[in-house]
């Protein structure tokens, strides 16, 4: 569905050039929840922005549903880390969710149904007429998720969406992602720097190295579909997997990080 | 008038949970606004009675004159002063102001969105905004004659700058992420203008409109003091020349009342438009 092949990106040119992404290859299949995990500053946002068509990478091939990504493709939605910045504070909760749907040419009834269904799914019924400033951070991020859900994207990109909410809220929102994924049979690409989160949510984890960044490995997560914040995280398999991801980030087994020949000699 | 207006808006709390105390607060605000004003008027009255002077008539006399000049007759007939002075003045200031609001916001949005355009027009704007509009009256007289066009255009010109500059500022203050969100959802340019650019810039734009409103009244009066045959400014000058000091004072009081009413109207509009802000009780200019 989404294919990334040998993606590279360098910010700036000349002496100031910064190789943010060295070589990224992976794919997302329909119905999957793939998480991308990597240390802060390794280029996760850069990667997601190129996939969303918000910027062009300096090299590599990106395709979505077989088409090269040159601008934002139809059927893609994104939830940003900075929910405060990505919501429209002058629109009510309901209007925020409704705004992107206007151009889709839905009937009034369909529109209303989608909006209320999404707000129900994220647990925001009764808050339709509030303005974002009247909501907590976690609730604001729920609005952003509801907005993406109502849009019914073929793929949903999420960029560290829960990095700035408290731990309890975070767990609730993680479970929310799992439940809406099941409910709407969504394809989700979830970026995080949190190893537990990446394993807990995913069908597959793409592990990124420190910059210059490459894909260390792609790990299948054979945990059951019914995940639970307490039980799943006690599961020996979960513990093994998170340990493995942590080790891979710390000590990537790759030719790319062998000691340069000059130093050995 | 400006004083009472700013007290009332700066201290207005948001809807309180306890109706009892909200009511009491409302009363104390009401008292502050009007009792202080009433006391000042009473002092003014006493002072003018104690030291009579033709230049400073008693407020009671002024209000008598004002009622006679402008309040409609028993069967709703408008007085000549209402028809010849107040209505033309209001027409000029509102028309000039409307032109200014539309043009300044449109231009401001264009400049705020396009760096390139901004670079082209910035020097012109910096020069024109620095010119005190009354200094342009002679030029406007030559260009547009002594009629209403000159006055309306002067008001439009003079009031455009605060709105224009604030609009530019407001549009530039909108975070890039808002536009990126719109891009991801493939939202059209027109839709962005309507739902992102204008509302995002609205707090600044409205602050500019508020500044411009008082400027508009000033320019209205000044423009009516030269080569005019009607208007409140004209009537004040006429009264002063004919030693009709109560009429002159009545005109001044009327200007205060009009300014106060327009400001109040703007506050109401502002509160509706900016209901989404954490504090929609805003400072008045
Ligand atoms: N617009 C930019 N110009 C130059 N460098 C950038 C820009 N955006 C990000 N970078 C750099 O690229 C690297 C990766 O950034 P980012 O993609 O935000 O990482 P992450 O999301 O994983 O924390 C960082 O070193 C960052 O400083
Ligand atoms: Mg990031």
From TrEMBL, chain A:
Domain ABC transporter residue range list: 2-235
CDD domains, A to Z: ABC_NrtD_SsuB_transporters
UniProt xrefs under InterPro entries: AAA+_ATPase, ABC_transporter-like_ATP-bd, ABC_transporter-like_CS, ABC_transporter_ATP-bind, P-loop_NTPase
SMART domains (UniProt xref): AAA (SM00382)
GO function term, MF aspect, one: ATP hydrolysis activity
Keyword annotations of the record: ATP-binding, Nucleotide-binding, Transport
UniProt cross-references to PANTHER family, sorted A to Z: ALIPHATIC SULFONATES IMPORT ATP-BINDING PROTEIN SSUB, TAURINE IMPORT ATP-BINDING PROTEIN-RELATED
Protein's name according to its UniProt entry: NitT/TauT family transport system ATP-binding protein
Species per Swiss-Prot/TrEMBL record: Mycetocola miduiensis
From TrEMBL, chain B:
Main location, first listed in the record: membrane
Membrane topology (UniProt): Multi-pass membrane protein
Record keywords, A-Z: Cell membrane, Membrane, Transmembrane, Transmembrane helix, Transport
Transmembrane segments: 30-51, 93-113, 125-144, 150-168, 213-236, 248-269
GO CC terms in record: plasma membrane
Domain ABC transmembrane type-1 positions: 86-270
GO biological process terms, semicolon-separated: transmembrane transport
Pfam name, any one: BPD_transp_1
Listed InterPro entries: MetI-like (IPR000515), MetI-like_sf (IPR035906)
Compartment list: Cell membrane
Keyword Acetylation annotated: no
Family: Belongs to the binding-protein-dependent transport system permease family.
Protein name: ABC-type nitrate/sulfonate/bicarbonate transport system, permease component
Organism: Mycetocola miduiensis
């Amino acid at each position: 569905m989404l294919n990334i092949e040998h993606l590279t990106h360098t910010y700036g040119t000349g002496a100031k050039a910064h190789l943010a992404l060295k070589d990224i290859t992976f794919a997302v299949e329909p119905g999957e929840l793939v998480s991308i995990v990597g240390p802060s500053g390794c280029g996760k946002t850069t990667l997601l922005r190129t996939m969303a068509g918000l910027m062009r990478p300096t090299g590599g091939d990106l395709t979505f549903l077989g088409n090269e990504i040159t601008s934002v493709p139809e059927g893609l939605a994104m939830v940003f880390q900075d929910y405060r910045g990505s919501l429209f504070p002058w629109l009510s909760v309901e209007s925020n969710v409704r705004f992107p749907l206007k151009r889709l040419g839905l009937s009034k009834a369909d529109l209303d149904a989608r909006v209320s269904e999404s707000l129900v799914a994220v647990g925001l019924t009764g808050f339709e007429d509030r303005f974002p400033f009247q909501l907590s951070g976690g609730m604001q991020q729920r609005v952003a998720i509801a907005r993406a859900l109502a849009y019914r994207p073929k793929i949903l990109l999420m960029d560290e969406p829960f990095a700035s909410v408290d731990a309890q809220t975070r767990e609730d929102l993680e479970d929310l992602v799992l439940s809406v994924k099941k409910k709407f049979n969504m394809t989700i690409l979830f970026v995080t720097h949190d190893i537990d989160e990446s394993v807990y949510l995913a069908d597959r984890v793409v592990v990124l190295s420190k910059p210059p960044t490459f894909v260390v490995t792609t790990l299948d997560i054979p945990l059951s579909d019914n995940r639970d914040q307490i039980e799943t995280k006690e599961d020996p398999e979960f513990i093994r997997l998170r340990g493995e991801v942590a080790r891979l980030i710390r000590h990537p087994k790759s030719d790319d990080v062998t000691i340069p020949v000059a130093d050995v000699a | 008038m400006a004083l009472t207006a700013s007290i009332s808006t700066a201290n207005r709390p948001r809807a309180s949970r306890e109706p009892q105390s909200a009511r009491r607060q409302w009363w104390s605000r009401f008292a502050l606004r009007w009792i202080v004003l009433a006391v000042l008027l009473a002092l003014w009255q006493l002072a003018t009675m104690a030291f009579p002077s033709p230049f400073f008539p008693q407020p009671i006399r002024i209000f008598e004159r004002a009622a006679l000049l402008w309040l409609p007759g028993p069967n709703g007939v408008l007085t000549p002063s209402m028809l010849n002075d107040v209505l033309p003045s209001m027409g000029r200031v509102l028309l000039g102001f409307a032109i200014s609001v539309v043009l300044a916001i449109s231009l401001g949005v264009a400049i705020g969105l396009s760096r390139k355009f901004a670079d082209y027009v910035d020097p012109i704007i910096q020069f024109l905004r620095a010119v005190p509009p009354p200094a342009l009256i002679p030029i406007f007289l030559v260009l547009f004659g002594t009629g209403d066009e000159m006055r309306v255009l002067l008001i439009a010109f003079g009031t455009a700058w605060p709105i224009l500059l604030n609009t530019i500022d407001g549009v530039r203050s909108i975070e890039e992420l808002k536009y990126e969100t719109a891009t991801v959802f493939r939202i059209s340019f027109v839709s962005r203008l309507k739902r992102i650019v204008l509302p995002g810039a609205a707090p600044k734009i409205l602050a500019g409109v508020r500044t411009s409103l008082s400027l508009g009244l000033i320019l209205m009066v000044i423009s009516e003091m030269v080569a005019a045959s009607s208007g409140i400014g004209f009537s004040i000058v006429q009264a002063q020349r004919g030693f009709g000091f109560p009429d002159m004072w009545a005109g001044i009081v009327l200007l205060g009342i009009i300014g106060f009413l327009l400001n109040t109207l703007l506050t109401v509009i502002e509160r509706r438009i900016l209901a989404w802000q954490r504090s929609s009780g805003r400072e008045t200019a």
